[in-house]
Hints:
The protein is built from 17 helices and no strands. Among the domains are: 69 residues, Alpha Horseshoe (Serine Threonine Protein Phosphatase 5, Tetratricopeptide repeat), CATH 1.25.40.10; 102 residues, Tetratricopeptide repeat domain (Serine Threonine Protein Phosphatase 5, Tetratricopeptide repeat). The longest helix is centred in the first third of the chain and has 19 residues. Helix 1 runs antiparallel to helix 2. About 3% of the residues have low confidence. It is an all-alpha fold. 75% of the residues lie in helices and 0% in strands.
Amino acid sequence: MACLISFSCASSPQRPTKSTDAKDYVHRGNTLAEKSQYEQAISEYSKALEVDPGCAVAYYNRGFAYWHMSRYEQAIADYTKVLEFNPGDAEAYNNRGDAYYHKGQYDLAISDYNKALEINPRGTLIYRNRGTAYGRKRQYDLAISDYNKALEINPRDAEIYYNRGNAYHHKGQYDLAISDYNKALEINPMFAEAYNNRGWVYSLKQQYNRAISDYNKALEINPGYTLAYTNRGTAYQKKRQYDLAISDYNKALEINPYLRLLYYNRAKAYYSKGKYDKSWEDVTKAEELGFHIPGDFLDDLRKASGRQN
């Protein structure tokens, strides 16, 4: 998302105070939005539009506030209004594309990013956003092409290397993925997600010690990173270090007790340790949360425990 706009609204010579009043409301809205007080900011932008319905900046900034509140339909409506006033506003197309993206309407998002790039062919953020939308559609080659273009313009954007690494990962090109995560971490050594994802690729390559090292770094940066605990637990489980795996699953479930896959993973770890009652407890919890336990595992647990459930 682009930042707020603070320039004044257009006014007609016949009504000079109209724009001044609207500008004051916009200014107050911007002050509130910068403090993440988006509901109050929306109220101020709406007042600006009551005074001056032609104040495009109020629509733009209100769309920004709606976006941050995940009220994407309203954000789309406001950016559409901005584009009626100014069809050449690349940022408005980009931001409306972001709103479509978050609604899962990837084709509409891509259409808006296309229009934004027609206006601004050097929009690094737009290429990055379109690449992410292509990634959601599993069109990884198109995603990589967009990330390449973005990096030609700005070769120091860690997030673009990270996103391209994710695309290579999904294509099964693990060495290229690791190379991009390395570059992202050279630029931003505090990029916890890049450590986590590089760790996952190392796990896929069965390099579990390297994976665990990366998860450790991710958790040093973000001690509340549930996915890193989950992935580290999985790596420990692959190494048959079941106590360490269970400890990590416990930490992840303390943060989010609704991760149904983790109950299944922990059930398998307990099974491997011969703690069948605890394994059954986790099977029950996973099923209560809607997880389908594989039949083969249930058969093994029944035989080992002498229980049916």
